[in-house]
Amino acid sequence: MRRIRILLFLSEYWVLPRSLTIKNKKMRFRPCIDLHNGKVKQIVGSTLSDSDSATLQTNFSSQFSPAHYAQMYRQDNLPGGHVIMLGPGNEKAATEALQAWPGGLQVGGGITDQNAEQWLERGASHVIVTSHVFHDGQLDTKRLDKLCQLIGKEQLVLDLSCRWKHNGYYVVTDRWQKFTDLKINKALLLELEKSCDEFLIHAVDVEGKCMGVDEVLLELLAAAEVNKAITYAGGVTHLKDLERICQAGKSQLDATVGSALDIFGGTGCTYEEVVKFHKKAAE
């Protein structure tokens, strides 16, 4: 299957050698605070369901508050992390994290044109949007334009989390349960970068499973040559996976680490060594 994916990727995305489109861009570690039922958790994202909570696979549930993690990230100067509300009942917890580091964290999960400004007022540097602008399998340009007018594209992150289907990676919405018709490729990214400040892209097929990163997706994203920051998430198992992201992404892709981190109950890598990796990559 992997060989088939590589061949399909090369046939559609063959490009000339990459030139640096983001001046002096260095890979950054983007920390996360995933919230479920008001608690910091690490779950397998593909097991989220609106109808059956019994299918949810939880890797870790923290005894510490969201503010604890936000303060830790602030102390280590790791801006641009993601506070993700996985379903309802997380608004208070998300607000607590944002208030612990005003302007240092982004927030996503249920963001619409009705509440985006409110989350920015609560301290988010950016809002992360998916389902509101990708629904019924299509991109709703009217909703996207309205959001840009309300808060400015400089404070908008588009979540293009995706799964493999047939011949490529397609954006998925509604807790990653529904496929859209939007295929991740250079043309899509170049078009959407006109309406946002950053992209967040979870490799849903490997997210939360600590089974290694999706190198085909990484190569696709690096080849797109967009001018906006892209954060890759999914599958990081140990520090060598961060090195793979750095190499495959030509240092142009940022990365987040979840279930593998010791602060989230993982054994693959320590938070301390990931912070050291971040600082070294920034040199």
What can you tell me about this protein's structure?
This protein is of the alpha/beta class and 283 residues long. It has a single domain, classed as TIM Barrel (Alpha-Beta Barrel). Helix content is 30%, strand content 23%. It is built from 9 helices and 15 strands. The chain has helices at 2-13, 66-75, 91-100, 116-121, 141-151, 186-192, 215-223, 239-248, 271-281, and strands at residues 32-36, 39-43, 58-61, 81-85, 105-108, 126-129, 134-135, 138-139, 156-159, 162-165, 168-173, 178-183, 198-202, 229-233, 253-256. A 10-stranded mixed beta sheet has the order 3-2-1-4-5-6-9-13-14-15. Helix 3 links the parallel strand 4 (81-85) and strand 5. The longest helix has 12 residues, at 2-13. It is globular. Mean pLDDT is 87; it is low at 1-23.
* Tally of domains: 1
| Mean pLDDT score | 87
Could you describe the largest sheet, including whether it forms a barrel? 10 strands, mixed
- Please tally the β strands and state the result: 15
Query: Which stretches are low in confidence, meaning pLDDT under 50 for 5 or more residues running?
Result: 1-23
For the record, the CATH architecture stands as Alpha-Beta Barrel
Q: Give the overall silhouette.
A: globular
Tell me the number of helical segments per DSSP (H or I, 4 or more residues long).
9
Here the CATH topology equals TIM Barrel
Query: How far from one another are the termini?
Result: 37 Å
Q: Return Rg in Å.
A: 17 Å
CATH class: Alpha Beta
What order do the SSEs take from the amino end to the carboxyl end, as H and E?
HEEEHEHEHEEEHEEEEHEHEHEH
